[in-house]
Amino acid sequence: MTFSVAAFCPETGMFGTIVTSSSICVASRCAFGRAGVGAASSQNITDPSLGNRLLDLCEQGASAEESLAQVVKETPNVDWRQLGVIDKQGNSACYSGEKTLGVHNMAQGKNCLAMGNLLDNKGIPAALVEAFESSSGHLADRLLTALEAGVKAGGEAGPVHSVGVKVYSEYDWPIVDLRVDWDPIPDNAIPQLRTIWEEYEPQMQPYITRAINPDEAESYGVPGDE
Questions:
Q1: Where in the sequence is the domain holding 15, given as residue range(s)?
Q2: pLDDT above 60 for 226
Q3: Integer Cα distance of 59 and 50 in angstroms
Q4: This prediction's pTM
């Protein structure tokens, strides 16, 4: 059971993905991004290699549609896969194989796409897209807002136990990589991620500064730091 959003912010150049599931550690298998290139989702009966393959093709100059078409063409067992990719022009493409599980659907919007399987209803991806398009603020916050709207629209057929969000800026590492890999309390993972994001957001820029210019970093505020 999984639903996700992949998105691009043309104002900042950021790419991001967010995904939730009843399965453990969903973001480690399903959410992919690359600075200056794109964002991708690989889900359902997941093959994590396909997310990076989609981004490799985008980095080589293929559009989102061309990348997806190539991956679908060359991939064995692709009927089991649900794939999505968005490129640096904001163009998106998505695919659901014939063996995608349960109630499933896809939706594309302005600078975003959404997909889901084993859903409560087919309207979930459209609700995700609508919420993302009408939101504002940091890309991570917009992705989380979209996910929360998906829950309100019915969410997954079963309980949510894991969730994760990744955002890439100009660096070759994610500036946001927050996860709840397993929460045994049904449907508590997404509220927990919201709490983590609200704690992390005001600390995000100092961590970026420490990475790229430690001489300009503020005090680390840890025991022994004088």
A1: 2-216
A2: no
A3: 14
A4: 0.95
